[in-house]
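Section 5.1 Outputs to date
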Amino acid sequence: MGRSLTRIVQFQAEHHYWRPEWTEAENRAAFGAAAAAPGHGHAYRCAVTVSGPVSRETGMIMDLGLLDRILDDEVVQPLHGRHLNRDIPYFCYGGAIPTCEELAAYLYARIAPRLPGGVRLERVRVEEDPWLYGECTGLE
């Protein structure tokens, strides 16, 4: 029987959907209101799900304190209070558009290698609001 654990963290950040090689009209046609400068902010929620064997000694898949430190290092500290396009090189203008799908993949790549042996990263879910989220369940 498989078991998983999900931890949710929050951060506030701004983003702007814009391709510098496109005209303003092309950006507005593709991204609508999200193309308006300088961008807009969200109170993001990031849910990270891990799986693995449950330790007989602790009853846990992994040390929750360690998971919290990883999420603080890789999600909260680097992203909270930032403008993603200006402050995070991966999302700088000309790079990846900071959609929730791209954020989930970016965070998956940062979190997965930090997990202890035997623990698998199942999913990273990034919510802009209760009605919109992106998920990553592995990298291509």
